[in-house]
TrEMBL record:
UniProt keyword list: 4Fe-4S, Iron, Iron-sulfur, Lyase, Metal-binding, S-adenosyl-L-methionine, Thiamine biosynthesis, Zinc
One of the GO biological process terms: thiamine biosynthetic process
InterPro entries: ThiC, ThiC/Bza_core_dom, ThiC/BzaA/B
Pfam families: ThiC_Rad_SAM
Family per record: Belongs to the ThiC family.
Keyword match Lipoprotein: no
Organism annotation: Catenibacterium mitsuokai
Binding site for substrate: N69, M98, Y127, H163, S185, R186, G187, D226, A227, C228, R229, E265, Y292
Catalyzed chemical reaction(s): 5-amino-1-(5-phospho-beta-D-ribosyl)imidazole + S-adenosyl-L-methionine = 4-amino-2-methyl-5-(phosphooxymethyl)pyrimidine + CO + 5'-deoxyadenosine + formate + L-methionine + 3 H(+)
Residues engaged in binding Zn(2+): H269, H333
Full protein name: Phosphomethylpyrimidine synthase
Secretion signal span: none
Length: 435
């Protein structure tokens, strides 16, 4: 038997090698996974040309995955530094790397990623078109936009963010419904500007079937971009965001009709009390396709700490249906993240993803938490470091304020509740001040 995409294989009843790998990672019956992929509720992004990939699955019934954004820009163009970020991200457990390069030799960087990196690789072709053609935005033709999609496919990227939901009708709706902020999506703003200057329809929407044919040929997952996501709390869940989501729901079905895997990109800034409802709306309109969220950031006033605002929103979003969290670093809204920022962003996202997996009952999600509890009960510091999400930081913090006695920490000393409970339950006398 032959197949074109993971979805095509799943619908034929074929278990692919990638499904076997993902099922083992998830401790899931491979037949159950195949059924989820056949329905479009789970995906395995894996371009046929990405030969170094270690496949991962994305879906609300699977462990929550995280994506790390990076790439070359005009102000930060050291390719080796970006590769170091990639390698560190993979070591720290990021399942996906998204190359958002917007300057220089983007293709060399992209091909290096798909040659060397085992993580899922994503891109946004609309950025690269502006760099590649090096001409005025209004002069890029519909054919040239699509040619960039094919180039990225040939280069081996596993998923592409395509801003195809912001069509002419959405363009007019956005102009007639004013926001506090405007479009904050880079790709969305580029396509909005292109439509405004040319008067033409969004080529990714107009020629959507051609885009799908490329994706089917290489088994690329469509990441349907949220051009109209809110950039501040005041704009969350407005007419533009929901209107675009309705279009994305229609485009999801058209992709499935061609056996193309799909995920939906979600809101950026959103009050806490709107997150769960947004997840339900997305699951309904997009028929259970995996949801990929940036945050959501739950307040607008924390530049320098937006990894925290995003982790709060991400944990809630994943609990209620999101399956893929795009990390946010402390540098968000301020600069390109450095190596330390990348680490902070990954750790915050991993905490959010793990907390959500526990909340939604993913089998085995609490296993490490239980081991950590046992280590703390025994006051076994080496075991505590072993089960920490960031062992290096945990070990450093303890070393920087070493306690007088090894079986306590410098916070509690002889007042340590754990030590005293262990002793009293063992029948010992506890004399806190005399010790």
């Amino acid at each position: 038997m032959s197949y074109t995409t993971q979805m095509d294989a799943a619908r034929q009843g074929i278990i692919t090698p990638e499904m076997e790998i993902v099922a083992a990672k998830e401790s899931m019956d491979v037949e159950v996974l195949r059924e989820h992929i056949a329905k479009g509720h789970a995906i395995i992004p894996c371009n046929k040309n990405h030969t170094s990939i270690d496949p991962s699955g994305i879906g609300s019934m699977l462990k929550t995955k995280i994506n790390v954004n990076l790439g070359i820009s005009r102000d930060c163009k050291d390719m080796d530094v970006e590769i170091e970020k990639v390698n560190n991200a993979v070591k720290m457990g990021a399942e996906s790397i998204m190359d958002l390069s917007s300057y220089g030799d983007t293709r060399t960087f992209r091909k290096r990623l798909t040659k060397e990196c085992p993580a899922i690789i994503g891109t946004v072709p609309i950025y690269d078109a502006v760099v590649y053609y090096h001409k005025a935005l209004k002069d890029i033709t519909a054919k040239e936009w699509l040619d960039i999609v094919r180039m990225h496919a040939e280069d081996g990227v596993d998923f592409m963010t395509i801003h195809c939901g912001i069509n002419r009708a959405m363009y007019e709706r956005f102009k007639n419904n004013k926001r506090l902020m405007n479009i904050v999506s880079r790709g969305g703003s580029i396509m909005f500007a292109w439509m405004a200057m040319t008067g033409e329809e969004n080529p990714f929407y107009e020629h959507y079937d051609e885009v799908l044919d490329i994706c089917r040929e290489y088994d690329i997952t469509m990441s349907l971009g949220d051009a109209c996501r809110a950039g501040c709390l005041a704009d969350a869940t407005d007419v533009a965001q929901i209107g675009e989501l309705v279009t994305l729901g229609e485009l999801t079905q058209r992709a499935w009709d061609k056996d193309v895997q799909v995920m939906i990109e979600g809101p950026g800034h959103m009050p806490l009390n709107q997150i769960a409802a947004n997840m339900e709306i997305q699951k309904t309109i997009c028929k259970g396709a995996p949801f990929y969220v940036l945050g959501p950031l739950v307040t607008d006033i924390a530049p320098g700490y937006d990894h925290i605002t995003a982790a709060i929103g991400g944990a809630i979003a994943a609990t209620y249906g999101a399956s893929f969290l795009c990390y946010v670093t402390p540098a968000e809204h301020l600069r390109l993240p450095n190596l330390d920022d990348v680490k902070e962003g990954i750790i915050a996202s991993k905490i959010a993803a793990h907390a959500a997996d526990i909340a939604k009952g993913i089998p085995g999600a609490m296993e490490l938490d239980n081991k950590m509890a046992c280590a703390r009960k025994k006051l076994d510091w080496e075991e505590t470091f072993k089960y920490s999400i960031d062992p290096e930081k945990a070990r450093r913090y303890r070393a920087e304020a070493a306690p007088e006695k090894e079986d306590t920490c410098s916070m509690c000393g002889n007042f340590c509740a754990v030590k005293n409970m262990n002793r009293i339950l063992d029948g010992e006398i506890v004399n806190i001040f005399d010790e």
